[in-house]
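The material for today's practical consists of a large collection of protein records. Getting from the letters to the tokens is the skill we practise here. To make this concrete, we reproduce a full record directly below:
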Amino acid sequence: MQNPHSSQKLATSSSTPTTTSGRVLEAYIPAQRGAIPFDRNYYRDLEPSSGGSRRSADVIVPLMLDILRPTSVVDVGCGLGSWLAAFQANGVEDVLGIDLDNVDRDLLLIPAERFLPANLRQPLKLDRTFDLALCCEVAGFLPSENAAVLVDSLVHLSAVVAFSAPIPLQGGPNAINEQWPDYWTALFAQRGYVMIDPIRRVIWDRADVKWWFAQNLLLFIREDLIASNPLWNKERERAKEGPLSLVHPRLHMERDTLDTSLKRALLALPRLFATAIRRRVT
């Protein structure tokens, strides 16, 4: 597989909004919605809290390695590169992070040459593919009219996609396209990709994993590859038996508007949810 960094090429539409220096403007949020753009200060503010994503990645990446065995990984909407840094720590050196040009290179957790700026509202067309494409919680920041574009970019990058996106009422800064998982599953299915769900039941009640990953993280694999992998084929059948749309109790526990009695009731839910999810195993 060729080196992706010596001559990396990216093609986007000529209509991509840029500054005179070529930097992409408001690539996530359309200006008419009045949302705050993801500027350099946004990424600087991530630095103190980036340990949350990295701690989650340190738990989840070994699971992905066991299930998928990737030797190359691309992260679309990589932020500071927490997930790719975790893959590198586990021996996967062939990584590439793609995100806005606004990302401060001084704060990257991966080498700067492993980062490629792009407008995620436009199709991503690289001159290579990867064993695994990641896209974690980014889709919710893109307008709904760009959802299919993002999915197209991911399936062009890899036959295997690890994907999470915010559900309705999940909240978060600038989230504008919150959808249930079946919305994304249908978009991937239209492109010949099958959903498997081997990770959520393992990480559901882990305190060292952010609840939104435990709630939303699914794998999509090109259908023609499923039959040749016994584990993937087994997970495909198992995914048909359990619920797809889940709401993690910690989502509600973090909201100050809940009264005390409801919070007490929610405290009892994690074990019940974990038990229900693990029933897929038996």
Remarks:
- The beta strands are 72-76, 94-99, 115-117, 132-136, 160-164, 193-196, 218-222.
- Residues 114 and 268 are 43 Å apart (CA to CA).
- Residues 1-37 have pLDDT under 50 and may be disordered.
